[in-house]
Amino acid sequence: MKLISLILSATACCSTLLHGQQNYSLWPRRPAELEQAGRLVAQQQDDQALLLLQPFIHKRGLAGHESRRMVGQIRVRRYLSGANPHLRRHTVRRGENLDRIATAYGSSPELIMFINMMTNPSDLKVGQHLNVAPVDLRAELHLADQELSLWDGRTLVAAYDVILSAGLENGKNEEARLTDREGEISGSRVSRASALFASSDRSLKFSNGLVMINSAKHPPERTAYVQLQRRDLNEISMLLRGGARLSVVRDEEEFDPFAAQSVSIENPTAKEDRARRAVHH
Fold first, then answer.
1. Over the stretch 60-102, which tens digit does the pLDDT of each residue have?
2. Which of 84, 167, 232, 252 sees the fewest Cβ atoms within 10 Å?
3. pTM of the entire structure?
């Protein structure tokens, strides 16, 4: 009887080990392309790294997540510099301010300031030359992956890890627009026209009630929110212009970023269109 008990125990132990080995073999393996891309990035061979990472950026799961982060680190540097692929040259005219110029080119004041190394939005002079980068990026918030990504058409520009408020995952996929961005320093709100706005902590508000906030801040009550690192949030604030589209993705199988939207979302205002035409004419 004791011998039978020992045999059964040994069999159970072997079964557990085999079962564990089988499960371990099913764990996702890190593709060799990601290892090589990491080495290329360290060697500043960004274009070669992008070629290796491209097949993975639309995949969900660990490999897709890691590849999007690496691609984002490469491309976001370009979008926030004089290497921006959409860069244009603007000569400041009498009566113009940074908001009007940004609106006319479909950019954001913060991005113009960053590219031109400005610290004060009022530091404009007639005849001054500015590098202006139009941005028409859209955002995707993938709740299952806890990831926010920014896209220029079908080109991935940046990807960020996020922390989600409880209950945000409930419901269907939805579309929203960026309606407001705010700045804060030591608990006090900072106007976008202030020289301090560039160094402030940002928060972004969307038409569906969602708020993006600094992960170091106390989250708001009774409001759906997404928390990001301070640097990431300030970066997003520069890259998303007013009215930028946000897709909240709860069901990956039902999500198509280029399909006709079933939910009506706010378009850029007629005032912005008139300002854009005024600068070009």
1. 888 899 999 999 999 998 888 888 888 999 999 999 998 899 9
2. 167
3. 0.77
Determine the 3-state secondary structure of 241 from DSSP. coil
Domain ranges, ordered by start, for the chain = 36-79, 138-266
CATH number of 138-266: 2.40.440.10
Question: Per residue in 100-114, pLDDT tens?
Answer: 999 899 988 888 988
